Amino acid sequence: MKRVLLVPVFVAFALIVISPEASAKRWLVGDNMGWSTSYGVNYTNWAKGKHFYLGDWLFFVYDRNQMNVLEVNKTDYESCNSDHPLHNWTTGAGRDVVPLNVTRNYYFISGKGFCFGGMKLAVHVEKLPPPPKASPEVSGASPTLYSRSQVVLLPVVFAVGAAWDAFIHLL
Ligand SMILES: *[C@@H]1O[C@H](CO)[C@@H](O)[C@H](O)[C@H]1NC(C)=O
Ligand SMILES: *[C@@H]1O[C@H](CO)[C@@H](O)[C@H](O)[C@H]1NC(C)=O
Ligand SMILES: *[C@@H]1O[C@H](CO)[C@@H](O)[C@H](O)[C@H]1NC(C)=O
Ligand SMILES: *[C@@H]1O[C@H](CO)[C@@H](O)[C@H](O)[C@H]1NC(C)=O
Fold it and tell me: Which residue owns the Cα nearest ligand 3 atom 5?
């Protein structure tokens, strides 16, 4: 009995654990044009209207032999100065993932002169908004799951229990 009662609890717990992860988004910078000067992407316009939330990631895909990904401060972002990056996110594969784990402004440029060609991105990272729809959804889902598991599991438990009782009595 004890173990079975834990199942709905576990399911509810799993839902709670999974839901924040499901809402984190991995942004492909420049979408399918990537981090590049080839397509004339304006990364300011790319970021415009998007909401970057705490826990999201930026995914930079680019030609590893040419560009890189440097995080700089606002001044250096504006002047395309790559001499003292705050963080060098370049791993060498041309596919770099940056976790946006602090609510602040982030400034990225490519060094090697590409910033002057437009490879500069500023994003503002916001706190996750209080879930207006997720809340009723989750609290609505859990009781459904709970009662559904109960409905399915309890008869099984009683059947197994009865069979076990019968078996014990036979001995
Ligand atoms: C950015 O860094 C440069 C060099 O370290 C410094 O001169 C400048 O004042 C900094 N700007 C900001 C906004 O912190
Ligand atoms: C950034 O890190 C990469 C990989 O470690 C390295 O090859 C590159 O020289 C670094 N770039 C800068 C500007 O520090
Ligand atoms: C954010 O991520 C960076 C890079 O992984 C890490 O160095 C830093 O400690 C993290 N900050 C927080 C507040 O988690
Ligand atoms: C991107 O477009 C904005 C206007 O939407 C403009 O102010 C900015 O200079 C452009 N950036 C680049 C790198 O061309």
Answer: 99
